Amino acid sequence: MRKIYWRQFLLLSLILTILPSFFLIFTAICHTTQENTISHIYDQEKVFFDSPQTSSIQLFTVPPRYLVVPYQEFVIRTSITCRTFKLDNPAKDSTKFHPKYSKYLRGPFPYVLPYTNITYNDIENFYTNILVNKKRDTPIIQTSFANNITFENIPYIFQQGMWHPLGITSIQRTAILVPLQNREYNAKTFLFNMHAFARRQQLTYTIILIEQASPLGHRFNKGRLYNTAINYLEKQSLNITCLVLHDADLIPEDDGNFYTCETKYPKHTTSRVRELNNKRGYIRYYEFLIGGVLLLTFDMYKTLNGFSNLYWGWGGEDDDLALRLIQQRMCIVRPIYELAIYTGLPHPRGPRNNARFGLLTWSTLRFHTDGYAQIESLTRIIDIHQTLTVTYLKLDVNPDKTLNKQSSMGNISSLLNTINVHMTSTIKTIIRTKTIKES
Ligand code: BGC
C-alpha cells in the first residue's frame, strides 16, 4: 500500500512540475510567433523596401505601405483628439468673413419642430417668402406648417447653386451633405432648421440630401453615399472648400458651433447629443467617435481615401474612417463641450452591421483599394433634383447587385487569423465601453 502511495505521489509531483513548464514554454513560443507576425506587419514598409526576400509576409502579396499604421497604434491611441492643436483663430477680415463675427449669432439655436405633414414645398416656400420679402421691415412668415418660428430674416441671395449672405464674402464655400434612407421627417426637420442655422453664421452654403434607393434587402451604406456625393460635387463648378458630413437626425443646439473647416485637421463637432424628449440628458460618446457631424476639406477627404465602401447596415463606417485618420497620422479637432451639442431626432434604427468588427480589424489593409478612389465603379446616381433649398441625389449603391463584395484580401486574412480574435475583441472594447452619460 505504502509503495503505491509513494509512486502516486512521485507521479503527481512530476506532472505538477513538468506540465506548467511545458505550458510556459508553449506560451512563450506562441507569443514570440505572434509578436513576429505583428512586427512583420508593422514594419511592413521597411520589410518591403529593405529586404523583400526575407519577409514571410511577402508570400502573401501585401502591397506596399498598407499597414504602416498599425492596429497597435490604434489600440494605444484610444484618443484621437489633437493634443496641441487650437481651433483657427480668424482675423476680423470682411474680405474673408468668419462666422465668429456674424452679428446674427444668438447662442442657443432656437430650432423648430415642424408639423409631421410638412412638405419639401413648404420649406421652399418658407425660405422663398423670406427672400422675396427681405426688404420689408417684418418679413411675412408662413406658419401653417410649423409653430414657434423664431428665425430672423437674414439677407441672403441664391446664386449659381449656392446661398450667399448679402454684402460679405464668407471665408469658405460649404457643402452640407446628408445621407439618408427612409428618414423623410428627419430630413425635412433638418432642412428647415439648417438654413436658419447656416444663415445665422453667414455661411456661403448648399445643402445636399443623398438618398439611398431602397430595393428590398439593401442595407444602408453611408460610406458609398458620401463617396458618391463628394465625387459628384468635385465635378461641379461650385468650388466647394468645406465638406460638412452630417447625420440627418442631428440638429446643432448652439450658434457658436461654427460650420467652418479648420486648416490642418478634420473637425468633429458631435461631442454631446441628447435625444429629443428624453430626460436622460446629454450622452458623451467615446473619444474615438467621429460619426455624427464631421467637417473636412476635399484634400483631407482624399488623403483618407474617403469612406470604406464595404459597410452595410448600421455602424462601423465612421470608426473605419477614424482608423484611416490614425493611419494617415491625422487627428481630430473639436470645439469646446459647451458648444458642440446636438439634439438627436427620433427615428427607427436600421439593421446593425454585425460584420463591422471583423471589417474594422482589417481596415488598414484595405486603405488604398477600398474607398473614394474606387467609388465610380460601385454606385450609380439615378436622380438629381435641384431646388432653391436643396440638391437631392438619389443613388443606387449596388447596381450590380452583389452585396458585400469582398476585396482581394482573402489570402491575407487567413495569414492573420491568429491575431484576429484578439484584435476584434479589443476594438469592441474600445468602441463599446467608452460611452459616458452626462446630465
Ligand atoms: C458604431 C458607430 C456609431 C457609434 C455611436 C458605434 O458602435 O460602430 O458607427 O457611430 O457606435 O452610435
From TrEMBL:
Q: Does the keyword Membrane apply?
A: yes
Which residue ranges run through the membrane? none
What is this entry's stated membrane topology?
Single-pass type II membrane protein
For this protein, what is the EC number? 2.4.1.-
Q: Cite the Pfam families for this sequence.
A: Glyco_transf_7C, Glyco_transf_7N
Q: What is its main location?
A: membrane
Pathway(s) annotated for this protein in UniProt: Protein modification; protein glycosylation
According to the UniProt entry, its GO molecular function terms are: galactosyltransferase activity
Query: GO biological process annotations for this chain's record?
Result: carbohydrate metabolic process
- Which chain positions lie within coiled-coil regions? none
The reply on keyword Metal-binding is no
> What's any one GO cellular component for it?
Golgi apparatus
Family from the record:
Belongs to the glycosyltransferase 7 family.
Entry function: Catalyses the transfer of galactose onto proteins or lipids.
Q: What is the recorded name of this protein? A: Beta-1,4-galactosyltransferase
> What is the species listed in this Swiss-Prot or TrEMBL entry?
Rotaria sordida
